[in-house]
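Quick one: CpXC domain-containing protein from Pontibacter flavimaris, structure tokens please.
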Amino acid sequence: MMPSLPVVIRCPKCGNQMKKQVLYSGNTFGAACYTDGKMEAPMLPELPQITKCPACKELFWIDEAEEVGEYFPMPLLPGEKEFPSVRFLSITDYDKALRRNLSRNTEDELYLRRQLWWKFNDRVRRGKPLVNSPREETIWKTNLALLEGILDDNDPEQRIMKAEVLRHLGFFLLASTKLEFVRDEQYKQVVDIIKQACKEQKTEVLKVEDN
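--- reply ---
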């Protein structure tokens, strides 16, 4: 991984300054892949596209924020505070972004719904319960149903995600049927894992491989 100097941005609402990481390059060595399409790669970390201002709590797309310049780490003077880093949203904030219609297009909606899906599944990846309340269960199921509707069957990776969404919702036969049309050898491992999980009627996210 080759990070560059962080870039300082301003919150579009209140002007609070934050720093965002920028990567020159990276690789997938040591990456963990999962059936929901998420890859956790220490040498190629995912960077957030939407964040929450820690000052005014506004949600905003990072590419819409004004860039002030590069961040040069220097000793802080008395009374100065370190610029906070932009962070991924929480489950509550992804849901809020969707309910407030912050998506500018279908691609944005797909990103938000996929991130919300992954945020729930991150709990399972860490050995924790998927949902913590009836409200969260409603958010989980509603998001998956709407995500399934915007995933493109003509894109093999999105078709696999759609099958995984259906498996999560308990539609095992339908999920397996979706995968019958994914024949590219590069997807064979994840397709086989999801099909086997459907046979066993398992709904939780599963690990595919370590690179």
